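As a warm-up, study this chain.
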Amino acid sequence: MFGIRSAVISIGAAALCLTAGAQLKFSEIFINPPGNDNGFEYIELVSDVPNFQMTGYWVVIIEGDGTVAGVVDQALNLSAFSTGSNGMFLWRDAETVLCPSPESGTSLHVADFVPDIENGTNTYLIARNFTGSVGMDLDTNNDGVLDLLPWDEVIDAVAWNENEAGERMYAAQLGGFEFPTGFNWTPDIALRVCGEWVLSDTLGTGPGPWRLDDVRRFPAEALWSGYKVTPGSYNPTILGDVNGDGVVDDTDLALVLESFGSDNACLTADINGDGVVDDTDLAIVLEAFGLSCGE
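Now compare it with the structure written out below.
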């Protein structure tokens, strides 16, 4: 859809291979909100089925910067949690208000990231039965190849580089996706839309709404101007897909009509982001009515 191509390296070790048809995936990783990060960082996961029990699953973040490349920076145990009735799970660092607010069906867990998630080069994994620990060096000689694999399998993986020479990404060798290098901006957010990864800077202030930067974004042609960040809700797939289910239909039309005339900028029905749900938002839905993800 967006012309993104993942660099996948087959290295023949079963423990390295990303599981095909995985039931749990990253949906959104927001690690550098404009202004103060505290209270607004989060990691959003989505499962193929609702109420998916995440026993044995971990989110593991591997450092990619310089001499500490390969060091486990975060290890978040998901075993005590399940996704919500809508298949979504949101781990956020505080109970501060988010705009727009998460869907009622989303499973929420609030716990500060200790240490804070860094804004630099990192690899993000969903792994099963992780047996390592924070501070463990998985790339002992810093050659960009993992020497230790303290998990049974990797379910999902994504990485990006802060554009510093000599930094390491590890997602591709695990069967995951790595963004290309060469940006002249520091990424704030990575999100999946129609199964494709998008990396972007963001605009706005806490508690939101935040929008993707129209210029500092990869792929540059991905999505539309003013795309709204939706913590704890499905990501809109095409302009007019208010509820993020991949199609513009009666549900989206109803959401706009229910909120019509409201001047609440936190509503997802404010599609064009002008602070009010009005004729313009209604026209967007009607024009796209019937379109689905990828069209």
